[in-house]
Amino acid sequence: MRLALRERGGTIVPKAISKTCKVSTGPTAQPNNQPPSQLRTVDDLAERWRVARKTLRNKLSSGELDDLPRIKIFGRVRFSLDDIVAYERTHRVSKRGNV
Hints:
With 99 residues, the protein is α+β, with helices and mostly antiparallel strands. It has helices at 42-49, 53-62, 81-90, and strands at 2-8, 11-17, 39-40, 71-73, 76-80.
């Protein structure tokens, strides 16, 4: 609720203006209900997979990693740790000859 001033009988008194306004009073929810420590950056993922950051960024932009779910927050890409682990499980190679 906002207040405006109006004149009443020679004195200025506050007048309530009814406007709908969203106000957040609780903690900000994280995407996919993941705590901040469970979200990883591109740099974190590159370090985990032991590849250059530029290589990983190129693969993301070329579409080679389209089946890896990602979250975009304020223009920044984040990955859920659960999604990373699931991606690694589905892309695991069991035989040496398939590398």
